[in-house]
UniProtKB/TrEMBL annotation, chains A, B:
Domain Transcription regulator PadR N-terminal stretches: 7-80
Organism per entry: Streptomyces viridochromogenes
Protein name: PadR family transcriptional regulator
Residue ranges occupied by any Transcription regulator PadR C-terminal domain in the UniProt entry: 92-179
Organism domain of life: Bacteria
Length: 185, 185
DNA sequence: TCTTGCTATGCAACGAGGTGCATAGCAAGC
DNA sequence: GCTTGCTATGCACCTCGTTGCATAGCAAGA
């Protein structure tokens, strides 16, 4: 299970509450690992019981108090152990690919609007990534030293960018293919 | 849930037993939707009860008998309805990306062998896809007509090829980045 | 004969993930 | 005063997916 580890990484990058984590999972980390707030609270509770993370009650003004979590020694060890474990290359689940193959037995051209919707979603994400890249990695760090956290975040973001570009190109290929079946057989 | 629909599509492409489906999910369909044989048998049972698919006992010589499933009217309708439903662009789960960002708090260079393993896996898949493409789509159909099933299978396969190429290029990027931290800080 | 291995189907149990719902503090606007 | 909306946390339930195990027919080879 990698949700534990995704949360640990996020907390190492910056301690925060369950609510804040949930919002990070809508951006940043969420680009390559999704989770709802219920999942996050559940995992936080378990990790706290296991001593992987520490809690600190933080009173706030103008809004409800929060529990700020940070990674404890045991959490670091658990993450370290996980990093050393080989994992299987991801198992993919592409609904859209199933739909495309399925459309052969229904109406291929009927899928066009759906594929266009997906294309727009990916274009949006790409724009978002590129804006983030320009903002956070536009200029090299002042002191010129190697910052592992920064460099590794950047290479992951480049992966997201490459993925979205690939998807957009492929969806164009799909659209061109579907288009050949407009009012066809 | 799309496992139902992935199975329906596979059975429309060619009727078969649970065992045969399980093997297809290790190849072909399995490239963009994974499933174990237990999942498949469970779903087949449910879909048969719901009248989505028909069964036929097929005696075999030299091996145990099998149950051959094929798609019934209701199954076609269910697939058709699903094709018309908009779906959300997939939620991604990349363990490796979590690991890469996590490596900033451990030993970045320690990830190199793991990333190399993934690179090999993707290279293998790419070779497999390219061989399949040459075999199944190397030459255009004799009669020159548009075959939706063939064309749509091909465009999905091209997606797989584009994905693997993108991943290999990105993993090279990751390796180059990690390499800068060899025996580093 | 015994083991190994492939074909073929299935159950039981558990854990992960998702949906819906509930609660509560506080601010801003109607 | 009431509603709306954001922050913040959590429970209950149900489904999906995975793991481990079990059974059984038949072939091939040691």
């Amino acid at each position: 299970m990698a949700l534990d580890h995704a949360i640990l990484v996020s907390l190492l990058e910056k301690p925060g509450s369950g609510y804040e984590l949930a919002r990070r999972f809508e951006r940043s980390i969420g680009y390559f690992w999704t989770a709802t707030h219920q999942q996050i609270y559940r995992v936080l509770k378990r990790m706290e019981q296991d001593g992987w993370i520490d809690v600190r009650e933080v009173p706030q003004q103008g809004r409800p108090d929060k529990k700020e979590y940070s990674v404890a020694e045991r959490g670091r060890d658990a993450l370290s152990a996980w990093l050393r474990e080989p994992i299987e290359p991801e198992s993919v689940r592409h609904d859209l690919a199933v739909k495309i193959r399925g459309a052969a037995f229904d109406d291929p051209a009927g899928l066009i609007s759906e594929v266009e919707r997906h294309r727009e979603a990916h274009t949006g994400r790409l724009g978002h990534y590129l804006a983030g890249e320009a903002r956070d990695f536009g200029e090299p760090p002042e002191d010129g030293t190697l910052d592992a956290e920064r460099e590794l975040q950047h290479v992951v973001l480049r992966g997201g960018i490459a993925y979205e570009r690939m998807m957009i190109a492929w969806l164009d290929d799909v659209l061109a293919t579907l288009d050949r079946f407009r009012a066809g057989p």
